[in-house]
Description:
The chain is α/β, with parallel strands linked by helices. The chain folds into two domains: 60-408 and 416-482, Alpha-Beta Complex (Amidase signature (AS) enzymes), CATH 3.90.1300.10; 493-583, Tetratricopeptide repeat domain (Serine Threonine Protein Phosphatase 5, Tetratricopeptide repeat, Alpha Horseshoe), CATH 1.25.40.10. Helix content is 48%, strand content 11%. It has 21 helices and eleven strands. The protein has an eleven-stranded mixed sheet, sandwiched between helices. A hairpin with a 6-residue loop joins strand 10 (435-441) and strand 11 (448-454). Helix 9 crosses helix 15 (459-482) and helix 17 (514-527) runs antiparallel to helix 18 (532-544). The longest helix has 32 residues, at 318-349. The radius of gyration is 30 Å and the shape is globular.
Amino acid sequence: MASSSQSGGAGGGGTVASNPRVWIVASIAVAGVLVLAEVARRRRRWLRGMSGTAPDAGSFCDRFELHPPAQPPPPAARHILSGLTFAASDNFEIEGYVAGFGNPDWKKTHETARHTAVAVTMLRKQGATCVGRTIMDELGFGVTGENLHHGTPANPVSSSLVPGGSCSGSAVAVAAQLIDFAIGTDTIGDVRIPASFCGLLCFRPSYGVISTLGTIANSQSLDTIGWFARDPCILHRVGEVLLPAAVGGLKQTRQFVFADDCFQLLKVSNQKTVHAIKNAVQALRGYQPPKHINIGQYIYSNVPSLKEFCEPATKLEEGTSALKAISTVMLLLQRYEFKANHEEWVNTVKPKLGLDISTRVLQAVNFARENIKSLYAIRNELRVALKNLLKDTGILVLPTTAGYPLKRNSKERLSSGFEDRMYKFVGVAALSGCCEVTIPMENLDHHVSLSFVAAHGSDKFLLRNILDTYSLIQDQVVLASKLETAPVTNVDVDVNASELLKEKGNSAFKRRQWIKAIEFYSEAISLSDTNATYYCNRAAAYLELGRFKQAEADCDRALLLDRKVIDFCRCNIPVLLRVTCLKHCLP
């Protein structure tokens, strides 16, 4: 019976073990299970790294809860951060845990921390609960927030865009409303860049005013403790806890100073921004009318040691060259100090790093420069120059970065051009050690975050000003985005953005690039349409192209604005246009 049963079960063709068709079916089934398991595994990994629906938006690398001490009974004052939650980047030491510094090899080769970072302890003492540590770019190097090992936190503003780095997880956790605020270290924009990309407020304090004890250093002369928040009140309250009492209180008079050349490099008109801030401060006491400056040219003229690092440039391009030189010096200083801190570990462990991070780390450990003192001299000169410009009451206004967030996994992240755009403006505060606030300005024609920079030591003054003006500025931005605003006029000709455009047009004209010159003159006119010289210059370019009607129209407009340009036309514009000039000279 048993033998018969086995034969029947095999379809009369022998036992199961000896039937090849059964083995084929079984093999296919097993393979199918393995394929499905692999698909499921890859999908989970993709969700963790790419999707905004992943747990915690992919922002945390460690979860725990460090509760604050008990609130003392009345009449003791309530803790200033009571009820708030926060997280810290993966380079903050927490007693009983190993800080990963964004890299698994670092975590494997370091011991459990015996103490908690000073900043974390200060925040907990004032009522905040620390709920974990967040993902960061490896070793504090990185701009995009993409981490080879831990994945990329999902940017809540747009899941297709990078969140910015190096403190990507902290920014995403706040923007996704998982916590009330977060802390990270800002070395060369590590807090300000992700704040800009994720639509957050952030604060980078003056160098040295907050203890970095208990954090893993990237570059100790540039590292500061920064923080993110969605609400200016929370940003201010965190500052009240972390900043010393003596650091810059409120002043009687205040003034915004617009870096017109920086807005021009971003190719975004600052008219609506200026208009919004002007209208906002009109309702407040103590604000003087805004000033305008070419900050690059100012730095070039007032930081003498920087000229060694400036590329050869015409008078027109000196300011742009100075801004690039600032970021160059900042990166050189970072490389020098990172090498001093971590060269031995890198050469011994040979950690596995992402391609872009590996490039930066190799640049650091292979760094060789004899005159290191010049880097520190520039740092000191820049701080003094900004102090002389802003004094105790000035606030410099400029875009946070000179570029926009990339798509995730974009190859452009490996390009030097992208790095230049990210670092062009952040170096002003990073290298000088001045304090800086970043705020989102989503309602402008372009998504731009603005930065406000005050002199070193003016931290509480700057935070208080942002607290007073933030909601008013945002309201005015909404109005400015809907209304056409008048061009900024009556500005010093040497520092006006429109004047910078005119000079660019002149430079193109000299190179016989007539169309390019017309474009620059037209942009200058769009910013200041009452300057007769701009029309005269554009008329000359039109004439070179044989576009006589446009040339005559521009000359007509120039003469209506200022009859003194008749002499200019006679001297500088060829015979054909003199007919127009003579026409206006006739009674």
